[in-house]
Fold each of these.
Amino acid sequence: MEPLVRLRLDVSYDGTDFSGWAAQPTRRTVAGCLQEALAVLVGDLPLGLTVAGRTDAGVHATGQVCHIDLPAAVYEGLRASLVRRLAALMPPDARVKAVTEVPATFDARFSATWRRYEYRVADVPWGPEPLRRRDTLGWVRPLDLDRLRAAAAGLVGEHDFAAYCKRKDNATTVRAITHLDWHRAADGVAIATVQADAFCQAMVRSLVGAMLAVGDGRREPAWPAALLRRTERSSEVTVAPAHGLTLVAVGYPAESEYATRADATRRLRVSPPVAP
Amino acid sequence: MEPLVRLRLDVSYDGTDFSGWAAQPTRRTVAGCLQEALAVLVGDLPLGLTVAGRTDAGVHATGQVCHIDLPAAVYEGLRASLVRRLAALMPPDARVKAVTEVPATFDARFSATWRRYEYRVADVPWGPEPLRRRDTLGWVRPLDLDRLRAAAAGLVGEHDFAAYCKRKDNATTVRAITHLDWHRAADGVAIATVQADAFCQAMVRSLVGAMLAVGDGRREPAWPAALLRRTERSSEVTVAPAHGLTLVAVGYPAESEYATRADATRRLRVSPPVAP
């Protein structure tokens, strides 16, 4: 069998005009655009394209990570020019910022130890700054940063986020949020930063929706944490719109840990919770 | 005659889909959109809309300033809700961020003492970050910040910028640049900041075009300043594209100086230079 080279691709996109990351037959998706561009360069090879965070329609990324496998001989001819050639082949709203050779034990999805997202909200009566309207939610009611932070503090830690997740069969909704906080940027935009080992679908947007209800005074700061006692998705939580959300970074362990981490993650995510 | 109230409007826009500021019969312009929105609120009144910087097609603003005059009685009914109602009536790519009552001596154009612009350039092989591609120029050759700064330093001061201006009859091309420098933002984007009493048409984009030729090594750092000896527009200068440019702020003197400053500016701009 021909030897393969595994490549890590660092990817950015403006999600506005994409139906999310994952390739779909009739829709414009980031993975679809990337696969089309790669097909021009390498032909009809199986790539094994695997992504760290399968973002939903309208969600952006400045720090997405994925991996592909290429025959070593094919990659050799592309090594020096791959980033530049992909830049010429891909649309301006999706960019491959770096291509790095990685060991075969690296798995963009399962080796990842954390994902970090940001959610941007402009709470001024005139709405988001026009040049940032694609990645900033407008919120007509003023937001109290102290209340947002109090709500955020109650959500940090390992919890069953069932209230904030679309449930899938045989998949745990236990996740560990290591960081969740709000700050205001120099231009006044309120930004939530949230980091966890992983997120289930629409989880960040559900958390933000719950916190916004606290931030504008409609709910008490203890309410989002209280929902963690629920065992299924809460209809009281409004999922915040996709366009405020950006995947900004994905973290990986040291190279020697790629395989161990991937094995552990696979076991954890696919089995039902063990006890009680 | 009915008493008038003069209002200062602070305006932001994403210039991508506008044919510039100034109203034109068949084109979508920022002034046109603003006048249409105001007409819904106040009817077919003469507004005397006057702007600080008549930006060209494709140029953005986060700190544009203009003024209008409204009959006091009409304004009284709108005072509490004008910003919110304009936000609802205007498209998301143009926003009125603030409305302030000012003395009748305030003139958005002629009272202004300085204008500040920023020009954003991403000099990486993969191009601008997708979410900032609307206000960031992609430059395939790497830029040397030291060379850009050396080029910039030679342009600061009061000079005849004829080489960098579209000449108009009876209009001086003497301008005073008080600040011109380059820095890299945290994400690596090279940003030129330039401040002057005023600019002639396409002047900032011409200056940036000349400096980029220095920054990527095609011209010597002394070249942009040497062009200041020319008495007419230089065909050697490439005008940088509009979409990298944003008007970020306009400065005004203390209220007591509005009228004096406006008179002085009017005299200066419309008369030919007095002496050699």
Note: Chain B has seven helices and ten strands.
Amino acid sequence: MGSDANSDRKQRPLGVFDSGLGGLTVVRELAACLPAEDIVYLGDTARVPYGIKSPETIRRFALEDLAFLLSFEPKLIVVACNSASAAAFEQIVDASPVDVVDVIRPGAAAAVALTDGPIGVIGTEATVASGAYPRAIAALDPRREVIARACPLLVPIVEEGRGEDDPIVLHVLCDYLRELQRRRPGALVLGCTHYPLLAGAIAKLMGPDTPLVNSGRAAALEVQRRLCSTGAANPRDAGGSMHCYTTDNPQRFARLGERFGGRAIDHVAFVGTDELETRPGPVYR
Amino acid sequence: MGSDANSDRKQRPLGVFDSGLGGLTVVRELAACLPAEDIVYLGDTARVPYGIKSPETIRRFALEDLAFLLSFEPKLIVVACNSASAAAFEQIVDASPVDVVDVIRPGAAAAVALTDGPIGVIGTEATVASGAYPRAIAALDPRREVIARACPLLVPIVEEGRGEDDPIVLHVLCDYLRELQRRRPGALVLGCTHYPLLAGAIAKLMGPDTPLVNSGRAAALEVQRRLCSTGAANPRDAGGSMHCYTTDNPQRFARLGERFGGRAIDHVAFVGTDELETRPGPVYR
């Protein structure tokens, strides 16, 4: 790649997608690690949640999300959705002309690095049923024990706006975490991008011997590593921009998104799922 | 209509749609009132839930669902989804060449007939935000007080398979119903097709002075009234058939659907949302 082409590549945005708002917790981590990067984010809020749907349907939606982001000519794609990472990572990598970072593999690696003991994983129905975390952990350490638990109510609880001190949140967490508390894993992976909003309560219930792994933070550090090792990081001093697209209800996205992303969402535009479904394949040059 | 045409009309199925599984509680009531009728059911499980989405998106999905059902040449359409009834009833009526029964207007009428006191309504975020129940009640009795409460966690709780004696279910219901318990409405409308599965616990919390209105049962009685008054009811003795279509995961639909519909689901087939979105308009002859 010539120096002009490489300079052009450095300026390109990161393309990030999720089924809805949760991926903004990954954007928050990206902004902390890589503040100079521009970000284009797609939240498929018309079809959210992915976590209760079949692998085939999640794959179809994820490939449509990818095709949309590729029209912005990103330098790297972040699959900021555990359910899409679990069901569609290989298909996304095959279909993408640029590097892809998901949330599962970096989350698994961070957990393996953190402990020699069993690893706990909590996530949506689809993520846990896929077995993607146990597979990613086994690829790094075949004998490692993994204790996985689906927690279907946590996404709607967070989206309803309930906080960590809400008695219902604590009651539901106690119910889901009971078996994990008993088995005392050496680390617990928050295998859903909504769960960082409940990290304080989860940490308290699990105790100090079970550190939490934020899979979004692990993914952001992996993006940083890849951009630096390939000389593709944006060298400017100024802060990067963020442009969001949502398939439903930009007002609700902006309002709730601030809680997930940790900062105001200034640019959010609507794109219909009918437009995603009829969009031609990658237009990457 | 000649007698042949009328005889043909009597044989046609009822077309029923919902965002997912909940509408099967309406089918259960239809089967109880009108056992001879054939039913074609569409559950849009790839895009479920509708209840957290914008009116515009719900309208688009609902019109696609309608177009699909019209290809079966039904004699009547049942909108077995409170969120779609709230957001899209007028648009569905405009687009349908056959009679349409929703769940909101019959539910509102049943509540007004049941009490002279205030009427409570519980439903999804979209149903409650739409104000559709207060409007339907005001059309019958302009001075009637309505106390509405959105209960976003109840749908995922039911879909997770939690029963009425689960402590978390009781805790969440107590939280949602607190204000309604204090204000003692003369009737409480279950304004979501999932809620009949929690009717026992809700009735216990509300007490004997607040009878519950099952909006699906009210809709089924309205369908019966319309078919009988127009001579369109199927006169045969044999039980009607039921064919289900789902936009995601027919296996999960059949497994969970039995709980909602109260009987085994024998015929369930997949239809993709891409097929719904590209389907031409009504093909009704």
Note: Chain A has a mean pLDDT of 94.
